[in-house]
Fold these 2 entries.
Entry 1:
Amino acid sequence: MGDKTADAEAIEAADKKYVMRPWPHPAGEPVIVARAKGCVVTDVHGKDYLDFTAGYFVNNAGHCHPRIAEAASKQVTEVLQVSGKHGTIPMVRLAERLMKLAPKPISKAFFSTGGSEANEIALKLARQYTKKPDIAYLENGYHGLTLGALEVTASEKYRESAGKPMGTENFAIPTAYCYRCKFGPHAECNVQCLDGVEEKLASRQTAAIIAEPIQAVGGLAPPQKWWDRLDQMRRKLGILLIADEIQTGLGRTGKMFAVEHYGLAPDIMTGGKGLCGGVGSLGLTSASDEVCRGFFGGTTPTNGGNAVSSAAGLALIDILYDEGLIENSAKMGRYFTEAAWAMKDPWIGDVRFTGLLGGIELVKNRDTKEVLGKAEIARVKDLLHEAGMLITVSGWHGNVLRLQPPLSVTSAQLDQFIAALRKTLTTVRGG
Ligand SMILES: Cc1ncc(COP(=O)(O)O)c(C=O)c1O
């Protein structure tokens, strides 16, 4: 328990009155955070939470890492922001660093202000290069909620939020949800879910496929052969691959970028979230020299590549390597997986972590895989919240506890969560 903020109630009242919050809020939310350090956030009442959202998957090195704070503070006194048409030293250095780390043939970076914007720029880039209008996206794929990004985000609920029909040029192709494979249990996967996709891609004016290498909604990691087959098809048809690494990038999956798990060589790669080290916001649209060559923009450079955010991003990358956080992500992902299965809880249907991307899928019945009811899921979340665990619920069916703490999380903190989850599931079941 930390210190209570003197005017905690007044702050919460002001939040209620003046802040627009267009989301449903379970009991105890929103949490107004007064301080945060590492994996722990402290609210205005002094209550500590273990943050299994990492500030919505942004603070990969943990909240308020001293080296990020130092880099940002130093930059604040030097130069803050200039138009993206010009540049600053940290912006150029961050581009250089990222492009040296990026999978080839990715070679040039364009900075914007967030993930959705980065993806919209990627769509423009793909269309400008190929001179084709259509974009394929994956079922269950999430690429942002601004109007352009929404057109390649699969969720009907989100698409309806636009208040207008989505364009007809983009179309969905099947994802790999192996736990719920439509083709039933089989000894060997022949990637039947991609049957007919080549014909579909060929029948349209397809410029690109946009996909997260591993889908963050539900932590769906396709098997190697799934990616191999899709990649082969799109290469044959001359279709670009846009890898959305906004949530999977920067060590989250136990590799710097998730494409490395599959040996993918995207033509365009996007980034965001943690790229700014939690200081301000950055979007990244990067591409091969070839694809960049014809890029004639159509995007404003007002706040792209903010100098302070870039300085913090550079510090973040150093920390990831110096503190072994990418390795820790892989190690803690394995630890979490083993600890979750070891609970032997009848409601745990699947545990899916690649590094620290993913979570636990809850079912009513392990054999039928019937999804756990909404009321029970809400109760699980509420009780975890009471126990000081900040999480989100995600997944195609809304039954996955998304558990993505900072990459610096310790096994002791994961043990704390597992203990809280064990108690919570037993209570909700009425045991
Ligand atoms: C994979 C992916 N793409 C795009 C976005 C959109 O990013 P932003 O919320 O910064 O617009 C997100 C955000 O959750 C994401 O996870």
Note: The domain at 68-322 is CATH 3.40.640.10 (Aspartate Aminotransferase; domain 2).
Entry 2:
Amino acid sequence: MTADQYPHVLEPAPGIIACLGYNGRGVAMSTAMGGQIARRISSESAPFDLPIVPLKTIAFHRLWPFAVRAAIARSRSATRWGCNEHAGRSPAVVGGHAL
Ligand SMILES: Cc1cc2nc3c(=O)[nH]c(=O)nc-3n(C[C@H](O)[C@H](O)[C@H](O)COP(=O)(O)OP(=O)(O)OC[C@H]3O[C@@H](n4cnc5c(N)ncnc54)[C@H](O)[C@@H]3O)c2cc1C
């Protein structure tokens, strides 16, 4: 997963290319990126469809288990006390995101 929800293309050292972070669409995306890497290997000037970006860590990423537990607890208590803003709505439209 990536914070911007796009796959990332990295070049950690000259001649080494890494494509990652397909955000749930890896089967199709990794196949497409494989084609791009092959093109780059055969011609160094061949452009990538995505920019090559520096490797960055996600701030506070080590805290994700606590954040997920807190969000679940918050949602459960909101449901228990009848103040869940999502109650009665189709999960498919909550927050505009497909769930
Ligand atoms: C549980 C699970 C469910 C998923 N479900 C979906 C889904 O429903 N839809 C979807 O689009 N994507 C899904 N994905 C993601 C998708 O499978 C991956 O994004 C995709 O396979 C990545 O392809 P890849 O070629 O980059 O890496 P991989 O498929 O991981 O291939 C890397 C290959 O390199 C080999 N390798 C590693 N190191 C070395 C080495 N040093 N020397 C030689 N060989 C090496 C590995 O053995 C492996 O065969 C899922 C992933 C997982 C784990």
Note: The chain has two helices and two strands.
